[in-house]
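Sequence in, structure out. Go.
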Amino acid sequence: MSCNPVARFALFVAILTGAFCASNAQAQITLLSEDFEGVQLKDASSPTEQAAPAAWTEVPPAGWNRDNSTTPIGSPVEFQGWTFMKKDYWSTTAGDQQRSTFAAGQGVVAVADADEYDDGTNIDDMLYNVFLETPSNPLTEIADIRALTATAHARGVLVAVDNCFCTPILQKPLELGADLVIHSATKFLDGQGRVLGGAVCGARTLTEEVFKFLRTAGPTLSAFNAWVLIKGLETLRIRIEAQSASALQLAQWLEGHPKMARVFYPGLPSHPDHDVARKQMHGFGGVVSFEIEGDGMAAARFIDAVRLPHIAPSLGGVDSLIEQPAIMSYFDTDPEVRLAMGISDELVRFAIGIEDTDDLITDLEQALAQA
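Output:
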């Protein structure tokens, strides 16, 4: 790849933002490498390490698979001390197997174990990007932005943070040391479900590369949609503060309900990352996830019984949305992989809008009675 590391980093963020805002069950750390050749790969099913081939041939190296492979995407692969989810980096061009432009591994790292990487020894020199999603979707795990950024910068690695759940109102990653911040503007920034868009924020040396990609490839907003988004930003503080206050009240109520197995919300003292959230956030966001006592059918009955929230997999708008990730946003994920990510059949994600909180509680109570 001929472009410099800064350009590669900015280009990746531009592609990610222009196409979609990815999410994982755990606060994710995505590591990008320009080249996997000569690196020791360890197949998750084998204790022996195997070197990647000098040339990419018809047969993929251990732990990888081709486009037409029947091997499930998403199974874990150990690499350089990180656990990666198996992805498909192979593409067919004129009948020859070639590497994709980006050989990218999504390192699913439990935030509770992030202190293992404080000395930087597990961030390999070949890696040039660390991507954090915090809070994570849908389990609201929190990554310590300042600590992880310091570790990455000590190795010369750039850091991007997906700040979609918080917006600048609740969390400012650039002030915590991040190099770039990205948003799915479709969510909280617009707040009305009217615009499909994204935002990339950071130093000019990075955003200029993003601008070049946008100008060339074309994933840009129309003038009208840009205006609609600006109008949405005018009410951002009012909306996100109201949604956060309502979410905290709902989470507290849910945690005391006898039909709750577990509630995931960083504003609760019971949340394992509550102290980190208090340190770097100015509010805890408008998304609450929870597991209902029982099985997936109990969760389905509950969702079918709610009256105020719409059943949909998006979030961030003035209307509350509710979903069952196992059969909606993660319906195409191998069940074993999904469960390993912490997404159970009975998990429910509730994106709170600006409805009256007491009305929402009343609605949830009658729906839980039918679960």
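Check: The first strand starts at residue 29 and ends at 33. Confidence is low (pLDDT under 50) at residues 17-114, 119-126.
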